[in-house]
Design goal:
Largest sheet: 5 strands, mixed, barrel
CATH class of the largest domain: Mainly Beta
CATH architecture of the largest domain: Beta Barrel
Strand order of the largest sheet: 2-3-4-6-5
Order of helices and strands: HEHHEEEEEE
Oligomer: single chain
CATH superfamily of the largest domain: Nucleic acid-binding proteins
Radius of gyration: 26 Å
Structural class: alpha/beta
Helix content: 25-40%
Length: 182
């Protein structure tokens, strides 16, 4: 009869456990890196938050996500047609044909807000007074206003009633700070 006596060495057991843990951690890190790189490749194929072939309607729900994505990646959105609603807002240093198509973005639970929006250019902009709610259709261009800025060249502008959902909210967890699909 053969008897095998096993002596447990705590030092070897700890080293084995440590090596297995490190290998498992490396496998997990490799999988995460693969998914990130593969996701970046796939998002590059759909290189914009808005498709390029039609007029894209921006809603209250995705307003700030789109606004942030366009301002972060202007070059990826040049030529994209958009349609959205906001109110005319002007500051002193804008040209006569420029205005901000603005929305109030709620930034705290007590309804404090800041004005956010796209800088727009329209030949007949002076026909619309400040705080007038309008719906515009236009194309995104790269311009300059205290640095590189997305400017919407308006092709159509109509006065509309103030919407029920006039406020927008900060970009949410669906916002991806790259040129991926939002």
């Amino acid at each position: 009869m053969f008897v095998f006596n096993v002596k447990v060495n705590g030092n070897k057991l700890f080293k084995t456990f440590l090596i297995c843990s490190i290998l498992l951690l490396l496998i997990i890190v490799c999988i995460i890196i693969f998914r990130v790189i593969n996701g970046a490749r796939n998002s590059h194929n759909n290189s914009t938050c808005l498709p390029q072939n039609k007029v894209n309607t921006i809603s209250t729900v995705n307003y700030t996500n789109v606004l942030k994505a366009v301002h972060d990646n202007i070059d990826n959105y040049v030529g994209v047609q958009i349609n959205f609603t906001g109110y005319v807002y002007r500051v002193l240093d804008l040209k006569e044909n420029q205005f901000v198509l603005a929305r109030d973005m709620i930034i705290s639970s007590d309804f404090q807000s800041v004005i956010v929006g796209f800088l727009c250019e329209y030949e007949k902009a002076n026909e619309f007074s400040d705080n007038t709610w309008v719906e515009i259709t236009g194309q995104i261009h790269k311009g300059d206003y205290h640095g590189a800025m997305a400017i919407v060249k308006v092709t159509k502008m109509n006065e509309v009633n103030k919407p029920n959902d006039e406020y927008v909210y900060p970009p949410d967890e669906t916002y991806i700070p790259t040129d991926g699909v939002v």
